[in-house]
Amino acid sequence: MKKPNPLTLLFLILSNITLTSVFAQNGNITYTLYRESTPTQDQQDAYSRIKTAMDSAIGYYNRYTGITKHLNVYYNTGVPTAQANFDGTISFGQSRSYMVVITAMHEMAHTIGAGTTTEYRNLIQNGVFTGQNATEMLREITGDPTAQLKGDNQHFWPYGLNYASEVSSQQDLINHCRIVDAIYKDLFHEEFFRECRLRSISEGTCMTVADGNTLRLGNCSDPASLIRMIALNGENLFRLEFGNQVLDIPNESKDAGITVGLYNWNGGAHQRTVFEFQTTAGDTLARIKMSHSGLYLRAGEDRVIQDLGTSSQESLYWELLDDKVNSVSRNESVKQSGDLFTITGERLTLNRDVSGNSPLTLRVTDLRGRTVKSISGSAQNMSINTSNFAGGVYLVHVSSKGYAAGKVFNKR
Q1: Which residue from 26, 153, 189, 222 has the fewest beta carbons nearer than 10 Å?
Q2: Could you say which of 188, 220, 241 is where a domain stops?
């Protein structure tokens, strides 16, 4: 990279003061700057400059991308300029000219796969990056319906921040982020899916972060139980984000009985989950299988455990909750599934406003799809006595012409 123009750098530093103080809106990128325990004066100065550059770069990426990554940043006098790898490592050399936001953002693009992955190189054809998302983003930015994102095996342009001369305003840095975000989608086909909580059907508690980096089952109203589900390149394949960390199987173990933990995202199959949604319940109930082992996540008292799919059926099912929920006893009255039905004592009653006055079928099945009870009629008279139901989890199905809904019912 050419030495940045001092006036350009001054403009970028001043214009970014407000931005870097804004909390992350979309992205989830964090970093650790590794320091010597007793730094020299040179190292102290370098750490200060690198921190300023990285804080600013992180501010841009987290505001204008949806990327999740943890970066490990080093000061290494043996590096001529600056360099980065897909594993999230960024190293700054001794030259202060490269300890700036432009360089930091350029290197961050390498950490997310630009110029460092097979996926990226596979999309370079005759000097053009052919990813659909990046191409459409460049055309949106430039207003040119024929614009192409040029590239080689290491870099892309425009907006790759390969040279300081590419940057004349803050908007160029924003456009860099927008292009990188689109490239990332082309490489790994990631998309935000939903925010929710995962409640164990057997325990009635949710996956929750405890003590900063431990995964436990806890209160579903705890803010630490909120999860970001990121759809990956595969059918119902997700990364489960808990703050800055993701659900992880320690040491990539394929053994049954391992307690599930949290770790920084590194893209491994031991951090990828496959949701086996129960078709009769839409996307509200699922078994969760680990991609690398083929084993399932089950609830075990206060822990989440990787185990065989033949374990207790109830402990293998997880309900996806979009809103805060409170635990209730069997004798309390609670409306469920957007007021689909009400449970009072031993009676399940369909709410009257469901599907207007159309004839309805109310059917209760077990988790294997076997019908336990089925009645038909109008919503005003839909009620089932559950006193003879064995304890366990059931699915309640309501259907009529042009209408269908489903919800989990846990008989305790």
Answers
A1: 153
A2: 188
Q: Quick one: pLDDT band at residue 331, thresholds 50, 70, 90? A: very low
What pLDDT is stored for residue 12 in this prediction?
46
Assess whether 157 and 47 both reside in one domain.
yes
Q: Which two tokens stand for residue 220?
A: 């579903």
Mean pLDDT calculated for residue range 376-397: 78
Q: Is residue 141 part of a domain?
A: yes
Contact assessment for residue 184 and residue 117, using Cβ atoms and an 8 Å cutoff? no
Tally the domains of the chain.
3
**Coil, helix or strand for 339?**
coil
Domain membership of residue 105 as a residue range: 28-188
Residue 19 counted as domain residue: no
pTM: 0.60
Tallying the residues shown for the chain, one arrives at: 412
The confidence score (pLDDT) of residue 357 equals 58
Whichever domain contains 244, its CATH number is: 2.80.10.50
User: What is the residue type of 296?
Assistant: Y
Q: Which two tokens stand for residue 374?
A: 């089925």
- Residue 176: inside a domain, yes or no? yes
Strand 285-290 relative to strand 317-321, pairing? antiparallel
Question: Does the pLDDT at position 16 exceed 60?
Answer: no
pLDDT tens readout for residues 233-248: 778 999 999 988 899 9
pLDDT beyond 90 at 39: yes
- Kindly state whether residues 140 and 214 are assigned to the same domain: no
- Distance in angstroms (rounded) separating the CA atoms of residues 154 and 104: 16
Q: CA nearest 109: which of 154, 164, 170? A: 154
Q: Is the peptide bond before 80 cis (omega within 30 degrees of 0)?
A: no
SS3 content of the chain, % helix, strand, coil (to 5): 25, 35, 40
399 or 339: whose pLDDT is higher? 399
Residue 359 near residue 376, CB atoms below 8 Å: yes
What's the pLDDT band for 323 if we cut at 50, 70, 90?
low
189-196: average pLDDT: 84
Phi (first) and psi of residue 184, to 5 degrees:
-60, -40
Does 142 lie in the same domain as 32? Answer: yes
Residues 53 and 183 in one domain: yes
